[in-house]
Amino acid sequence: MRIAIACMGSRGDISPLLAVAGVFADRGDTVEIGCTVESRDFVRSHGFEPRVLTTLNLKEFLQSPLGQEKFFGTGTTTQLRAVGKLADSHADEFDEHLEALCEGADCVISTRIIEERAALVTHRRHTPLVMLEYFPGDPHSPVPNPLLGPRLQDAAAKIPAVLPLTYRVFNVGWALSIFKKTLHLAKRVGYPHRIINPRSVLAGRDILRIEAFGTALVPPRTRHDERQPRIGFIRIGGRPADRADRDAAIEAWIAQDDRPIVYVGFGSMPVVDFDGVVGGLSATLARNGMRVIAVPGWSARTGDEVVNTPDLLVVPDVDHDAVFPRCAVLVHHGGAGTTAIAAASGSPSLVCSQAFDQHFWGRRIEAARAGAVLARRRMTADTIAAEVLALVRDEAVVVGARRTGAAAANDLHGRDQFIAAFDAFMAEVAATEGEGSGR
């Protein structure tokens, strides 16, 4: 089987797709990986030769003064527009490369953000589509739409009757935002039908939408659908061999004294003056008998060297499985993957939400009594320190985090669940095609 996988987004978005790609490759399937320019090395490090779909560099945009102003200085809707506008400027390039990636594929796997595009470039062969979802996305979800602004989410959460409306209204906005580009691509690929709603290009297609975020933090949908199963979070197994020396150094730092540890990492959300924030935080926490291990992620630093003092360790990355359960508090951005692993660790989380679905995941952590949310506009060394100290002193949160950890640990086995759902879907599609050809 030839499988085309379009990896879009940050490392957290791409990792689950690479995890299933590894399974496909190991069992003999031909796997082609398409990705953004900044993800090439990450894809290559997992044994695949990447095909660059777009030269759009989201990391550079988010780190730039323009990105800091236009993206982080606004609300969720404006953030989505900013990223959409950036993507539109590279749309022709992306569509051309996506079409080439999908040519001759027996199945295309990606995420919802390019669902309509994938349907259009494969319309002639009606290639089966599998879309991986990292947060709830339809009206049958018993939680607010994660892509609403924080205030709207919080208001809707108090009125269950309006929850379906939060998805329907967003879908209208999404359709309007992609309408022109959808028409342009439809014309380019010779799509034969008139398009009123961009979602109409999905009609009649074999599509499997897999919700890969478990049930410990988000209750199941109110309507069962075999073509929209809920599975656990998908993780890449093992730890790269070239991390052994770094992991050993981290273990040595952890073992050097018994003071509680606070992890700090914001993933693909660049923090201005990361070194200053982390330095100030570690100084405050040190006065309260704690120490900090920090991972910069996409945050620019004044220097790239490792910081190793008794109170602060700054390293490029950590083994989440080894480090998270040993932390008193986990300070992170609330990405879906980080939240899943943090919840399963049994340690309280301080979710410093900054964009997209991060406020949603912070509220889910709060609902589980496993942590708290801190908005980006309030993020300083002092406010983070105050929230951390409040969490470690709140016995209800400590107990809630442990309780959540026991349940969330069962949500980390999504890779095998994905493969099972994929195989069942492809078998069903093949059987249906066989019946059709036999008539």
TrEMBL record:
<dbReference type="InterPro" id="IPR050426">
    <property type="entry name" value="Glycosyltransferase_28"/>
</dbReference>
<feature type="domain" description="Erythromycin biosynthesis protein CIII-like C-terminal">
    <location>
        <begin position="300"/>
        <end position="404"/>
    </location>
</feature>
<dbReference type="GO" id="GO:0016758">
    <property type="term" value="F:hexosyltransferase activity"/>
</dbReference>
<dbReference type="InterPro" id="IPR010610">
    <property type="entry name" value="EryCIII-like_C"/>
</dbReference>
<dbReference type="Pfam" id="PF06722">
    <property type="entry name" value="EryCIII-like_C"/>
</dbReference>
<protein>
    <recommendedName>
        <fullName>Erythromycin biosynthesis protein CIII-like C-terminal domain-containing protein</fullName>
    </recommendedName>
</protein>
